[in-house]
Backbone:
């Protein structure tokens, strides 16, 4: 019985990993590549490690596998966000078929902070700040 | 069969097919790592290489019947995250892709 679960989980994990590999090779720009690599690879690692934990059936192995899964689920979105933000700020080109760029003009390029129109109105400019804006 | 695990035939086929599929995925991620074209692309590809390596470690632990390989997976996952964060900070500070 447990063997059936292991085989199914492992096949799912391998399929998701292959999907991530195909996606990172085929997708047209950084942001779509990041999207496909982060999500399916995280779920794939989760499936494979769950299968391994069931295979060994031991408390120690189960704890360690759970630790790896938890760590991946915590760090993969954070890392993808950081590298995507850095890529957007330094001007990595978007795909030519991109319809909307919602962040366009919203990054303050001197301080690298994101300003939505609402906070622009309410924020009091600090004259001592090195990044004081002239247009507020 | 590439790996002789001594398990039941269903498990042995699964493990062998998985190793081949994961190797193909690793090769694809590595191709993106070589092709680039920008630094963030390479960092994302390196992240994926590490994730696939963790999965390969986990499957190899099943192949040899040694759960010690999971510890190596923990260490790899930790170090690669630090590398991604460092590369993101560096890219942002450098100011060009």
Residues:
């Amino acid at each position: 019985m447990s063997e059936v679960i292991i085989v199914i989980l492992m096949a799912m994990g391998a399929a998701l990993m292959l999907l991530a590999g195909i996606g990172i090779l085929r997708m047209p720009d950084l942001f779509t590549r990041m999207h496909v690599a982060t999500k399916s690879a995280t779920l794939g690692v989760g499936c494979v490690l769950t299968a391994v934990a069931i295979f060994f059936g031991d408390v120690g192995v189960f704890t360690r596998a759970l630790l790896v899964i938890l760590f991946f689920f915590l760090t993969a979105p954070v890392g993808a966000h950081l590298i995507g933000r850095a890529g957007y700020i330094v001007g990595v080109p978007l795909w030519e078929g991109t319809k909307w760029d919602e962040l366009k003009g919203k990054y303050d390029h001197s301080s690298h902070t994101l300003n939505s129109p609402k906070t622009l109105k309410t924020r009091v400019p600090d004259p001592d700040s090195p990044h004081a804006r002239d247009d507020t | 069969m590439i790996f002789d695990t001594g398990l039941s035939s269903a498990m042995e086929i699964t493990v062998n097919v998985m190793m081949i599929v994961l190797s193909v995925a690793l090769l694809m991620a590595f191709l993106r790592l070589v092709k680039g074209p920008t630094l963030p692309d390479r960092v994302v590809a390196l992240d994926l290489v590490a994730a696939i390596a963790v999965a390969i470690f986990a499957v190899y632990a099943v192949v040899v019947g040694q759960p010690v390989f999971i510890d190596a997976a923990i260490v790899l996952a930790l170090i690669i995250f630090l590398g991604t964060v460092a590369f993101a900070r560096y890219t942002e500070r450098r100011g060009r892709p």
The first helix of chain A runs from residue 2 to 26.
